[in-house]
Amino acid sequence: MIRRISLLLAVVLATGIAACGESLTTSNTCPALCPAQDVAVHDTVISPVLAFDSTFVGFPDRGNELGLLLATRGDTVETRGVVRFDSLLFSYPVPSDTARPITTVDSTRVKIVLDRTRATLPSSVRFEVYDVDDSTADDTTTTAVLAKFVPSRRLGSLTVLKDSLTDTLLVPISDSAMLAKIKAKSRLRLGFRVDGTGSASVIMKTTETGWTTTVTFRPARDSTILPITISAFSGTPKAQPDLQTTLTDYQVIAKYNMPPAPPNTMSVGGVPGRRTYLRFNLPRYITDSTTVVRATLRLTQVPVAFGGVNDSITVKTHPVLAGPLVTDLRRAATILGSSGIGVYDSLLVVPTDTGVKNVEMYGLVRLWGAQVSLLAPPTRSVVLRASEESLYPTEVRFYGTNAPPALRPSMRITYIPKVTFGVP
Q1: 270-290, pLDDT tens digit by residue?
Q2: Residue-wise DSSP of 50-106
Q3: Taking the alpha carbons of 336, 341, 343, 348 in that order, is the dihedral positive or negative?
Q4: I need a surface site. Which of 4, 68, 226, 322 has the fewest CB within 10 A?
């Protein structure tokens, strides 16, 4: 019996060895059946890999910021924030009585919430609050708003030692100014500025992240009357409800004097945010007729003199979802997929650095090869953007399509013959 079993095993092993020694040329077989079978692996560098690149400035749109950068860094950067309170209360409830008009305002405070994660703070920092409203003039353009940051319109300030600064601040503002707004049945729009004994920058949280700035005051000196709290709210422009909501709080850029970008370069980050749109020109005999196992986009960084190691930027690569009929490339740069779709790297870049930076995107290159359009070929494009746009005054630059050949973007692609699956 044992001899018969041994003979049967020998036959099975011999059959298996013979099968894997056979050359299976059909594309419908699985190479895993014969792991020893050779597969031709090809490796090539495509340069130039881009049809063109374009850098666009002004992201995110005003009012969509995930924070308000308050910065005063000498002649280089100065940014401020605006918060609207367009729904003030003109009376207050009294127990066992009808509402009474507000004729007294006491202990007015504005509460702001800070993100100090990457703040740059001197030993002493001062937060200033201004009245930036003017119902007779435009209060949405940068020039009009900045003109109101003058001493005569300052409503209050708070100076804090760096070691004593917390995430929540209560900045006292003028009681008389608050009462004047209430008596006039007007609105309150506040501008915020930071200053100190040296360069200062910190992020003020916004309604987009679930944090709202509030104003609190007492409507009477009677301790039994509860304080009134007013949340940020925008009432204009009435004809554009979506824009009305986004303008509840927004950033104003007073100064951004970054050294100008050299010719033939592309930029990411900065204040306001910059995005770079890349359109690829890949050979279709590779994307459509082979199986790509690796695709590495190689970008050569241009050093920026402004910045330090603490001013790093995380650069993310997003596939463009806008179809070929969207010809406005700036608009196309806002119609994006997640940075995790086919692109598996984000770059942590220090602006003063140089050298080649790699982005692995073989999944996206495979996806492009599988795309089919009845109207026009799909746009093979990505957008490079900072993960925290307009929150940090730092910018990273790379050589672009028209740079010298050795510096322009390229892509290293490793591929094998097309692998398909099915019944032989």
Answers
A1: 999 999 999 999 988 888 888
A2: EEEEEEEEEESPTT--SSEEEEEETTTEEEEEEEEE-----EEEETTEEEEE----E
A3: positive
A4: 4
Write down the H helix ranges in 301-343: 329-332
Please name the amino acid found at residue 373: S
Count the helix, strand and coil residues of the chain and give each as a percent rounded to the nearest 5.
15, 40, 45
**Coil, strand or helix at 250:** strand
Distance CA 398, CA 299 (A): 6
Q: What is the DSSP string of 11-62?
A: HHHHHHHHHHTS----TTS-GGGSTTS----EEEEESS-EEEEEEEEEESPT
Reply yes or no on whether the pLDDT at 15 is more than 60: no
Q: Tell which CATH architecture fits domain 42-58+259-417.
A: Sandwich (2.60)
43 Cβ neighbours under 8 A, 6+ residues apart? 412, 413, 414
Residue entry with tokens 């890999």: 49
In three-state secondary structure terms, 279 is strand
Q: How far apart are CA 255 and CA 139, in angstroms?
A: 18
Q: Do 129 and 191 touch, CB atoms closer than 8 A? A: yes
For residue 424, give both structure tokens.
């032989």
Identify the H or E element spanning 123: none
Question: What pLDDT, on a 0 to 100 scale, did the predictor assign at position 39?
Answer: 74
Query: Dihedral of the CA atoms 393, 155, 212, 140 (nearest 10)?
Result: -60
Q: Averaged over 4-22, what is the pLDDT? A: 38
Structural contact between residues 96 and 48, judged by C-beta atoms closer than 8 angstroms: no
**Do strands 228-231 and 214-218 pair parallel, antiparallel, or not at all (unpaired)?**
antiparallel
Query: How many Å apart are CA 316 and CA 137, to the nearest integer?
Result: 40
